[in-house]
């Protein structure tokens, strides 16, 4: 590689799992206990520019206009090391990133962040890796990031043993039909347990965790059928039950913990009531207090209107399925 500059700017969208990833079998390589399946969203994304330049003194990382140091810089710098190691080069990198999530958020952005950084590195360095291959890199920044290399519904294969290359994601359906997600932003509490800490603690101390891999295997196969059939009620029923089972493993950990807040429970209850009123509305939740409502796009505005009784307008964000990463 010559002493040239290599630059690219990519946008990657976040994704929400319908069948969750919860637990690693290999912490260093981010190899998961189970496969998982998600929907990429168009409303939330990260834009990242990378510049590999021999005239730079060292790596730098600016996030939302703030220069990052310490752990935050180390995390992305170590991530870019994966490319430097595999492609035998040592150029310093300047990374400039912007998260496009509503200000009231508290919505995790690590999936879109590492997908954007991996895609931009591939593009800038002209590596010509396939999206599946890029997803293997993204996975090692944040597991869920592997799925953000694809638009629509994505399946992240758990892979075999300690073989990193076998644990990649791929698109299973473009989701170009009547489906949407309404994100209910619940204000995050002061104490945040990261997904990494949460899953580790659950695996170590929850007697219910032993049941989780089997349940996921069943849910994945049923979910793939439901997606093929475009059966929104089946998709919703499986997703909601899967999320509840994941949160049950946490509630049963010792000491117990939960990401739920009072407002999360209120949102869940409202979704159940909307169902009774005839809507195809189902919820899912991740490692935070926000509630995401799965529903047909044709019903999402009516569902949003109903939730306005309890939630502020800027805390209700409608999203359609989102695309794979692209250059901006
Ligand atoms: O990849 P992480 O560390 O952001 O973990 C994601 C964990 C969940 O959001 C709870 C589930 C998932 O599959 O995205």
From TrEMBL:
<dbReference type="GO" id="GO:0004163">
    <property type="term" value="F:diphosphomevalonate decarboxylase activity"/>
</dbReference>
<keyword id="KW-0443">Lipid metabolism</keyword>
<dbReference type="GO" id="GO:0019287">
    <property type="term" value="P:isopentenyl diphosphate biosynthetic process, mevalonate pathway"/>
</dbReference>
<dbReference type="InterPro" id="IPR029765">
    <property type="entry name" value="Mev_diP_decarb"/>
</dbReference>
<dbReference type="Pfam" id="PF18376">
    <property type="entry name" value="MDD_C"/>
</dbReference>
<dbReference type="InterPro" id="IPR041431">
    <property type="entry name" value="Mvd1_C"/>
</dbReference>
<keyword id="KW-0547">Nucleotide-binding</keyword>
<feature type="domain" description="Mvd1 C-terminal">
    <location>
        <begin position="181"/>
        <end position="313"/>
    </location>
</feature>
<dbReference type="GO" id="GO:0005829">
    <property type="term" value="C:cytosol"/>
</dbReference>
<dbReference type="InterPro" id="IPR020568">
    <property type="entry name" value="Ribosomal_Su5_D2-typ_SF"/>
</dbReference>
<feature type="domain" description="Diphosphomevalonate decarboxylase-like N-terminal">
    <location>
        <begin position="12"/>
        <end position="166"/>
    </location>
</feature>
<dbReference type="GO" id="GO:0005524">
    <property type="term" value="F:ATP binding"/>
</dbReference>
<dbReference type="InterPro" id="IPR053859">
    <property type="entry name" value="MVD-like_N"/>
</dbReference>
<keyword id="KW-0456">Lyase</keyword>
<dbReference type="InterPro" id="IPR005935">
    <property type="entry name" value="Mev_decarb"/>
</dbReference>
<dbReference type="InterPro" id="IPR036554">
    <property type="entry name" value="GHMP_kinase_C_sf"/>
</dbReference>
<protein>
    <recommendedName>
        <fullName>diphosphomevalonate decarboxylase</fullName>
        <ecNumber>4.1.1.33</ecNumber>
    </recommendedName>
</protein>
<comment type="similarity">
    <text>Belongs to the diphosphomevalonate decarboxylase family.</text>
</comment>
<dbReference type="Pfam" id="PF22700">
    <property type="entry name" value="MVD-like_N"/>
</dbReference>
<dbReference type="InterPro" id="IPR014721">
    <property type="entry name" value="Ribsml_uS5_D2-typ_fold_subgr"/>
</dbReference>
<keyword id="KW-0444">Lipid biosynthesis</keyword>
<keyword id="KW-0067">ATP-binding</keyword>
């Amino acid at each position: 590689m010559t002493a040239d500059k290599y630059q690219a700017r990519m946008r990657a969208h976040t994704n929400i799992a319908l069948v969750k990833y919860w637990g690693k079998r290999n912490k260093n390589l981010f190899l998961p206990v189970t496969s998982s399946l998600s929907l990429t969203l168009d409303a939330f994304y990260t834009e990242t520019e990378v510049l590999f330049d021999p005239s730079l003194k060292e790596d730098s990382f600016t996030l939302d206009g703030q220069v990052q140091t310490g752990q935050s810089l180390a995390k992305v710098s170590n991530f870019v090391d994966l490319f430097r190691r595999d492609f035998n080069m040592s150029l310093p990198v300047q990374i400039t990133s912007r998260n496009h999530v509503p200000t009231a958020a508290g919505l995790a952005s690590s999936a879109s962040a590492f997908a954007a950084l991996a895609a931009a590195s591939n593009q800038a360095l002209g590596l010509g890796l396939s999206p599946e291959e890029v997803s293997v890199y993204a996975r090692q920044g944040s597991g869920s990031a592997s799925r953000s290399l694809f638009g629509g519904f994505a399946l992240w294969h758990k892979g075999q043993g300690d073989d990193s290359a076998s644990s990649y994601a791929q698109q299973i359906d473009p989701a170009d039909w009547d489906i949407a997600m309404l994100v209910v932003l619940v204000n995050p509490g002061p104490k945040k347990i990261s997904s990494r800490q949460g899953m580790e603690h659950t695996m170590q101390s929850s007697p219910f965790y032993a049941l989780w891999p089997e349940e996921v295997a069943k849910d994945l196969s049923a979910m793939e059928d439901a997606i093929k059939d475009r059966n929104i009620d089946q998709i919703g029923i499986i997703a909601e039950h899967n999320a509840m089972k994941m949160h049950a493993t946490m509630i049963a950990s010792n000491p117990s913990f939960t990401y739920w807040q009072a407002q999360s429970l209120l949102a869940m209850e409202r979704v159940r009531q909307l169902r009774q009123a005839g809507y195809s509305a189902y919820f899912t939740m991740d490692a935070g207090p926000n509630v995401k409502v799965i529903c047909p796009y044709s019903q999402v505005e009516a569902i949003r209107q109903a939730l306005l009784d309890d939630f502020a307008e800027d805390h209700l964000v409608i999203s359609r399925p989102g695309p794979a990463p692209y250059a901006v």
